[in-house]
Design brief:
Order of helices and strands: EEH
Shape: rod-shaped
Oligomer: single chain
Largest sheet: 2 strands, antiparallel
Distance between the termini: 62 Å
Number of strands: 2
Bound molecules: zinc ion
C-alpha cells in the first residue's frame, strides 16, 4: 500500500517531500533546511540574551 501523507512546512508554507521531512519540537512537519535555519536564528537571539545576562551579572 502506497499511501502518501502530505506534510506542509509551517516555516515556508511549502509541501515537504518525505526525504526532507523533519519534525520540530512541537511535532510539526518542516524542511530540514528550514528547521536548521530557524534553530540558527533562535540560537543567535538567545546568544544576545545570554550576553545581556552576563553584562547584568558583572
Ligand atoms: Zn520549509
Amino acid at each position: 500500500m502506497t499511501r502518501k501523507l502530505r506534510a506542509y512546512c509551517w516555516i515556508c508554507g511549502k509541501e515537504v517531500p518525505l526525504e526532507h521531512c523533519k519534525t520540530d519540537e512541537h511535532g510539526h512537519a518542516v524542511h530540514d533546511y528550514c528547521y536548521s535555519t530557524r534553530v540558527k536564528l533562535e540560537g543567535e537571539s538567545s546568544r544576545k540574551h545570554a550576553s545581556r545576562a552576563e553584562r547584568t551579572q558583572n
